[in-house]
Amino acid sequence: MLVGGFFYSLYIASFFLQQSWALYTCSALLGFGAALIWTGQGNYLTLNSDGTNISRNSGVFWAVFQCSFLFGNLFVFFLFQGREQIDQQTRTILYSVLLVVGTLGLLLVLVLPAMKDSDAARNSNSKSGDGPVATRGAQLTQGPLDAFLRSIKLFFTKDMGLLSVAFFYIGIEYSFLSGVYSPSIGFTLEFEDSKRLVGLSGIFIGVGEIAGGALFGILGSKTVRYGRDPIILTGFLTQAVGFFLIFLNIPDNAPFGDTTDTAFITSSSFLAILSSFLVAFGDACFNTQVYSILGGIYPNDSAPAFALFKFVSSMASAASFFYSPYIGIHPQLIIIGILLFAGTICFWLVEWRSVYKRAHLIETSNPDSAVDKEFD
Question: CA 56 to CA 50: how far, in whole Å?
Answer without folding.
Answer: 10
